[in-house]
Structure formats: structure tokens, C-alpha cells
Amino acid sequence: MGALLMQTSAERDELDELDRMLVTALQAAPRADWRRVGRALDVDASTAARRWARLTEAGLAWLSCHPAVGPGLAPLVAFIEIDCAPGLLRQVAAGIAADPHVFTVEHVTGARDLLVTAAFQDQAALARYLGFRLGALDGVTATRSQIATMVHVEGSHWRLDRLAERRRAVLVDRAPAERSAGAPTPAAPDAADLALFTALSEDCRMPAARLAERTGLSPTTVRRRLARMRAERALVFRCEVARHLSGWPVSVTLWCAAPPGDVPKIAAQLIGTRETRLCASLSGPHNVMATVWLRSVEEIQPYEARLVARFPGLVIADRAVALWPLKLGGHILDPYGRHVSAVPVALWEDTAAATAEESLLARFRS
Asked: For 301-345, what is each residue's pLDDT tens digit?
């Protein structure tokens, strides 16, 4: 009965054309004020704000923000496959989903039960997490991990729909959206940056004046720091929509093997397609990983055939279809991909594993 009620509830969910354009506008300009959003969509500001409130209250769409940098070194992104003991998958998934440096947790088909994306300070932190967090978690029977040697594109770049040029022009922010080629790598954030990260993780549309109150900075300083973070791509803004309403309800992750010299061409091809949510180069023998959203399970094989036809040297070694995206970009979702709650992202924070590691090392020292 519960599953039937959930299905009926999901069938009542819907997005009209204005909803879809609103989500797309906020994907393009997540901090644009409602007047600018309204002008882009040919509605008044109050209508845009009211529509967005309805979508978020129903869990059908949501905004988030997380840092792309943290104290110390550049982030190490890892993809972890987890096998679970019978009957304990949901318990394991719930525990992992609460970890603040874990971005995504999916229950998937194939040769693993859970697929996890997480960020770490370095290789030692990944080893600590695998050994002292996952290794000690009741219900975990095995793990396999790969390091992303490069993330070519991730979910914040995906768009629900296409905006006409005149609409995009209204939304354009004069601040540079991307770091120019040859620009320095973002410096490690200081205390003021970390305070802004925390405030934005709670509400990424918080006005500069409110951010100033929360952080103790002046509004001018807040605006200057936000502009710098955007230019350095030190902040990642995401606007998501419940997957069953997106028109692309099937998420498939592909593990591929390709000649190293072909990887840049393959990545460029994948980045340019509507289906691609994630493309990364990996450290293992399956050196290309892609997550794509498709319109149906029947499209999986034709999609793979088109990809291999374009790149004959590419071998698709494995694939997994997402059954339940329990966590996406730091947000807990229901089985239909509707928003339930947020877990504020804290890059590389893993106190429990660090404490367990220190206890072990202390035994060796004594």
C-alpha cells in the first residue's frame, strides 16, 4: 500500500512550461534576483518567486552551493563501489549519506550495490575512509575505489531545458563565470571564505547584506569575495529537479576503456551532449567514466552503440543503472528523486575515521 501511495503521489507531480524555464534560468543564474529572473521569463518577480517556492516546498526542485576547494591541497575525487550484506543495504546507505564529504550515493544495478562519489584531502584521507569508516561499518562486505585523475564535467553544468538567446542575455552576470586559461589555482580558503561557504550552503540565494550579517564582513567585502570565488570557480552552484520530472528519468553510469590518446576527444564528445551529467578520467584500467541521463532504459544500448561507432577504440566494460539516488550533490532524495533534506557539504571532513586512525597509530607507538 505504501508503494502504491508513493506512486500515486509521484504521478500527481508535474512541471509546466514556466516551471521548466524557471528551473533552467536558475541553473544558469542561481543568485539572480527575482526581478531579473522575471524579466527573462516574461513574468513579474512575485510570480517567479511564488513558483519557485511551490517547487521547493514540494521537493520538485532545489538549489545548493558547495566549495570546490578546501584547506590544504586540491580536492581528490573518488568513486567508491560498495557491496552490502543481504538486508543491510539501506542501513549502510543511510549511514554513508550522512557523511558531509560524500556528494552522491546511489543504489545501482550490476556488480555493486552502492556507488558513492566523495571528495578527500589526499590519498591518505581516502585510505582512512575506506579502512576506518567503511571497513568498520556494519553491513559493508567489500569496497572498490577509483580516483578521478580529471573531472571533465559534473552535474552543475547540466541544463533541464534550453533558453533562447534573449532570455540568456537578461540573466548574464557581468562577473566572469569561469576561470580563464592560465589563471592561478584558487588559494586555500581563509576563515572568512569558510564562513561564507557555511552560510551559502544553508541558502545559496542569501543576499550580500544578509551574508554580511552572518559572517561579520561588510557587504562590499562579501560581494568582492563572491566575485573572486566565481572567477576562480571555487564555488559550485547547482539547481536540480526531481529526476522523474526531468524528461531524463534513467541515470546510467558507464565504465569505459580507451587508448590514452583518445580520452580528450572522447571527453569532449561526451561533454557536448545533452545526456551527459558527469565525465571523468579514472586511475584504473577502465580509464573513462560517464554518467548519462536517458529518456528510457530502451535507449541504453542505442546510446552505447552511437558512442562506440564514433570512437571504435572505445570499449564499454560495465554499466550500472541507478535504482534510487539516495543522495545527489549533498541532498537526500526519495526514490523518485524528490528533495527530502540537505546535508551541508564540508569537504574532506571525516572526524570519525581520523579518530579511529589515531587510535590505531597510538597502539603502534605504545
From this structure: 999 999 999 998 899 999 999 999 999 999 999 999 999 999 888
Q: Where are the alpha helices (DSSP H) in 60-215?
A: 89-97, 123-128, 165-171, 191-202, 208-215
240's grid cell:
536540480
CA-to-CA separations, 162 to 15, 188, 363, in angstroms, rounded: 15, 35, 59
**In the chain, at which residue ranges do the beta strands (DSSP E only) sit?**
61-67, 76-84, 102-108, 114-120, 140-153, 235-241, 250-257, 276-282, 288-294, 315-328, 331-333, 339-342
Asked if 89 and 113 touch (Cβ cutoff 8 Å), the reply is yes
Q: For residue 313, which of 256, 246, 270, 251 has the smallest C-alpha distance?
A: 256
Mean pLDDT score, 145-161: 95
SS3 78: strand
Place of cell 552551493: 65
Q: What is residue 184's DSSP assignment?
A: P
**Residues with Cβ < 8 Å from 300, sequence gap 6 or more?**
250, 252, 294, 319, 321
The alpha carbon of residue 74 and the mean position of all alpha carbons in its chain are separated, in whole angstroms, by 17
CA distances from 101 to 77, 135, 163, 186, 326 (A): 10, 17, 33, 19, 15
pTM for this prediction = 0.88
Provide the pLDDT for residue 7. Answer: 43
The enclosing H or E element of 9 equals helix 2-12
Cα distance between residue 103 and residue 310, in whole Å: 31
CB hemisphere CA count around 15 (13 angstroms): 24
Helix, strand or coil for residue 274?
Answer: coil
Instruction: Report yes or no: 152 and 291 within 8 Å, Cβ to Cβ.
Output: no
Classify the C-alpha dihedral 297-158-7-18 as positive or negative: negative
Beta carbons of 97 and 343 less than 8 angstroms apart:
yes
Closest CA to 291 of 278, 303, 301: 278
